[in-house]
Write a structure and sequence with these properties.
The protein is α/β, with parallel strands linked by helices. Helix content is 40%, strand content 11%. The protein is built from 10 helices and 5 strands, in the order βααβααβαβααβααα. It has helices at 27-30, 41-48, 65-76, 84-87, 116-134, 151-162, 170-187, 194-197, 204-208, 219-236; strands spanning 19-25, 53-59, 90-96, 140-144, 191-192. A 5-stranded parallel beta sheet has the order 2-1-3-4-5, sandwiched between helices. Helix 5 links the parallel strand 3 and strand 4 (140-144).
Length: 262
Amino acid sequence: TIPWHRTTCYYVPMRMSRSTVVLFGDSITQMGFGGDSSIGWASLLANAYTRRADVLNRGYSGYNTRFAMDILPSVFGSGDDDVSSYVGRPLFVTVFFGANDASLPGDRAQNQHVPIDEYEGNLRKMVQSIGERFQADKPAVVLITPPPLAKKKWDGWCMENYGDLSPRTNEASKMYGDRVKSVAKELGCPVVDSFSLLGGNDTDESYGKHLEDGLHLNGSGNKLIFEGLLDVLKRDFPELAPMDDGDDKHGKKGIALHGALW
């Protein structure tokens, strides 16, 4: 057995012949494959792209856009790096940040708050940087707004598990989501409005039923995000959506199943 302190880690380039889908975001993305027998929006997406593309989860719990900009080169490469050796050749990339940026400035313990103007600027730089890394083969970038925040449920969960609050409001989540839509319009990116999909303009109890702890998605919330994303792809990029006619292989548009049908 080699002692851990004597081991050396080497970066091994990826060799992918199949297309990929890259999911870049915070804990809502990291938890997107579900757990404890629950479904996740990423696992539903991976199932939809079975034999079509490999779904790569690049979710980082606790991250805001400021932290995400710091790790962007380690996710997509930098300088003369071959970006395909990091994430292959994506059909599209989702960018799903904001739930932590929108935490209130008084949350000194977590220090996740990012002022809204900086948040908007970070999103803009992120989309532009991803595009620059791929040059001529730029993938579509889909922006996703932060979901609504069920304050009573979230405060209760924080007190029960940590004995302290992580101050957030539904109003802040909506404002940050509006900035996502603004950047999407400016840069010509499609947007999945998770705030509206989960009913963020309704009552706390109404949209809270889609949230596990008031912030993170439960099974129904994950399903709504998946369905919303698929709807956006079919509307704006039908050639990138899973083919759903002609036995999923010989249809008129979309990504067909790989390999012969038996």
